[in-house]
């Protein structure tokens, strides 16, 4: 932790809910009930000045009326009362407060800023405001208004959206996946992503961290924590806001938003995090990375009893940028001896619709031992010739025995098609990843590969600068400072050229022209040294010129330049 430890957030001994109410489905009542249903073993108190008891449980009017100091306070009072509750909690010596209440505003003078100041003065940590709450399943804490409780497990979930938390919990419960901790951060008045990454990176009960982020408060702290966490365990990120909402014109800063996302993307990759595009990918990556370790290669072998589904799996693998493994000569010969002559003799390895359990196990052994692949995907389509559940049990047991016999076991993924009941439980019992769909499984393998690449990038050492390198850092800082002082978010082309020049990085010459005629004057001189020119629109409101047809390339005559400039201006008018 960067300031005070947050252990009390996940392992509190005493909790007070401020804002209790007997009203059905009110925040205070729901959260108090969720804590009781979760089986919280510590002291639970409800604070409300309006009711002496709620649901048969006595209440107190104020925090100071308690005969003990709670570690954790959950705040659900209306916005006008939040400041007083935080002041009371700080004076009482409470360690951490989770502020569920929304509508506290933003910026200087807002209630959000005032409670953050109050909390800092007392050494009180704040989660929120405007959040769903916190869940710590191993310690029977459900200080949230989530619709369903989370199961204990080894995934941590950090999200700036309460809706993402509830969706993820529902998904995980359906798949018997549990969590070491879940935090809905809300508006991050105090506790932020970086601090929580630090916490779960060192938590031995957390195997992977899932992160849904919309913005970063302290970028330096976040990246430092992200790099440290990624060295310890997988961190999987969904970064929202890749595009502007709706179809705006480029001049309304769509380009600026996209540019910011490119910065986020580069920073996330350099920090060793695995970025995915949506919740479906987040779940697939979590399922895979929570069961399997990163792999060195990227070649996938596919085993199936149905040729069509095998071909579909190969197609999806290639669509996602994966690599289909070739079979080694030795593996091909072994499969020839073990399988009917009608087998596919290639990847995917189709062992026939009449395949029994022993045929599956024999093929698994051959492919598992084949050094020409780096992972194995086992597919079963249901038939009346073999019990899908019995096959799943035997395959899971067999694969588990194989991997236990190896120091660095090969990843094996499974997909039993047809939604047959109880076919995934055997794989869960042996901690093997199984999937409902071909795409989910293939995507999971690709995530293993991408995660290994992310770690390699994290560990990569930048090359040393040559001894003769002499950067003009003073001028570079001045260029950036001047632009920032003018309120600019983007450097214009001339400033970019000057900035890169400070570090000896060459780029094509750039000239600004106010009119098509001025552009022609520049072109006359430039065409004596260059074969062709480009004309681009220059506007602080348009970062992606091609979005407004603001770029014309390949101009090889003086007359073509003013004509292109005039056409661009006409389109932008």
What would the keywords be for this entry?
573 residues, alpha/beta, Rossmann fold, Dna Ligase, domain 1, six-stranded parallel sheet, 19 helices, 22 strands, 41% helix, 16% strand, flat, ATP_grasp_subdomain_1, Ligase_CoA_dom
Briefly summarize what is shown.
This protein is α/β, with parallel strands linked by helices. The chain is flat, with a radius of gyration of 30 Å.
Write the layout of secondary structure elements.
Elements: H1 7-10, E1 14-18, H2 27-38, E2 43-47, E3 53-54, E4 57-58, E5 72-75, H3 79-92, E6 96-99, H4 111-122, E7 125-127, E8 133-136, E9 141-144, E10 152-159, H5 162-174, E11 179-184, H6 193-201, E12 208-213, H7 219-232, E13 235-239, H8 254-270, E14 274-276, H9 279-289, E15 299-304, H10 307-319, E16 323-324, H11 329-338, E17 349-350, H12 357-369, E18 375-380, H13 388-404, E19 412-416, H14 425-429, E20 434-435, H15 438-459, H16 473-485, H17 493-502, H18 516-526, E21 533-536, E22 551-555, H19 560-572
Parallel strand pairs: 1-2, 1-5, 5-6, 6-7, 10-11, 10-12, 12-13, 13-14, 15-16, 15-17, 15-18, 18-19, 19-20
Antiparallel strand pairs: 3-4, 8-9, 8-11, 21-22
Helix pairs in contact: 3-4, 6-7, 9-15, 10-15, 11-12, 12-13, 16-17, 18-19
Keywords: ATP-binding, Ligase, Nucleotide-binding
GO molecular function, one term: ATP binding
Protein name: CoA-binding protein
């Amino acid at each position: 932790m960067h300031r005070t430890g947050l252990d009390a957030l996940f392992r509190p001994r005493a909790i007070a809910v401020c804002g209790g109410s007997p009203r059905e489905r009110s925040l205070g009542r729901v959260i108090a009930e969720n804590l009781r249903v979760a089986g919280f073993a510590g002291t639970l108190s409800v604070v409300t000045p309006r009711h002496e008891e709620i649901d048969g449980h006595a209440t107190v009017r104020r925090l100071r009326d308690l005969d003990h100091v709670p570690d954790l306070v959950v705040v659900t009072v209306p916005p006008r009362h939040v400041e007083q509750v935080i002041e009371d909690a700080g004076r009482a010596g409470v360690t951490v407060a989770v502020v569920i209440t929304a509508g506290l505003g933003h910026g200087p003078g807002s209630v959000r800023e005032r409670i953050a100041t109050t909390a800092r003065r007392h050494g009180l940590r704040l989660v929120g405001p405007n959040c769903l709450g916190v869940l710590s399943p191993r310690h029977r804490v459900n200080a949230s208004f989530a619709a369903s409780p989370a199961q204990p497990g080894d995934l941590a979930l950090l999200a700036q959206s309460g809706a993402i938390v509830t969706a993820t919990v529902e998904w995980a419960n359906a798949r018997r996946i549990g969590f070491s901790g879940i935090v809905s951060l809300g508006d991050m008045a105090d506790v932020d992503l970086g601090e929580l990454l630090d916490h779960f990176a060192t938590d031995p009960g957390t195997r992977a961290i899932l992160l849904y982020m919309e913005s970063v408060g302290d970028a330096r702290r976040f990246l430092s924590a992200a790099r440290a966490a990624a060295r310890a365990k997988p961190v999987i990120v969904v970064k929202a806001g890749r595009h502007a909402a709706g179809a705006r014109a480029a001049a309304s800063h769509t380009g600026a938003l996209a540019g910011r996302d490119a910065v986020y993307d580069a920073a996330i990759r350099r920090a060793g995090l695995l970025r995915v595009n949506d919740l479906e990918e987040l779940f697939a990556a979590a399922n895979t990375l929570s069961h399997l370790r990163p792999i060195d290669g990227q070649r996938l072998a596919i085993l199936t009893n149905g040729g069509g589904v095998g071909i579909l799996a190969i197609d999806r693998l290639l669509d996602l940028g994966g690599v289909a493994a070739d079979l080694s000569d030795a593996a091909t010969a072994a499969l020839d001896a073990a399988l009917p002559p009608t087998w596919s003799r290639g990847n995917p390895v189709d062992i026939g619709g009449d395949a029994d359990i022993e045929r599956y196990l024999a093929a698994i052994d051959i492919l598992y031992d084949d050094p020409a692949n780096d992972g194995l995907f086992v597919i079963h389509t249901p038939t009346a010739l073999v019990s899908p559940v019995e096959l799943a049990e035997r395959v899971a047991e067999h694969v588990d025995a194989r991997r236990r016999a190896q120091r660095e076991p090969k990843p094996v993924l499974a997909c039993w098609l047809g939604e047959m009941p109880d076919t995934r439980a055997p794989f869960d019992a042996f901690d093997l990843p199984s999937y409902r769909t071909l795409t989910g499984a293939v995507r999971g393998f690709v995530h293993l590969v991408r995660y290994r690449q992310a770690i390699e990038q994290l560990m990569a050492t930048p090359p040393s600068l040559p001894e003769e390198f002499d950067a003009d850092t003073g001028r570079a800082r001045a260029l950036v400072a001047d632009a920032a002082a003018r309120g600019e978010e983007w450097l214009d082309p001339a400033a970019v050229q000057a900035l890169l020049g400070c570090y000896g990085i060459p780029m094509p010459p750039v000239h600004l022209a106010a009119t098509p005629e001025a552009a022609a004057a520049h072109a006359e001189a430039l065409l004596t040294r260059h074969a062709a020119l480009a004309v681009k629109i220059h506007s602080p409101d348009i970062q992606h010129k091609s979005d407004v047809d603001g770029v014309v390339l390949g101009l090889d005559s003086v007359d073509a330049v003013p004509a292109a400039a005039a056409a661009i201006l006409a389109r932008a008018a």
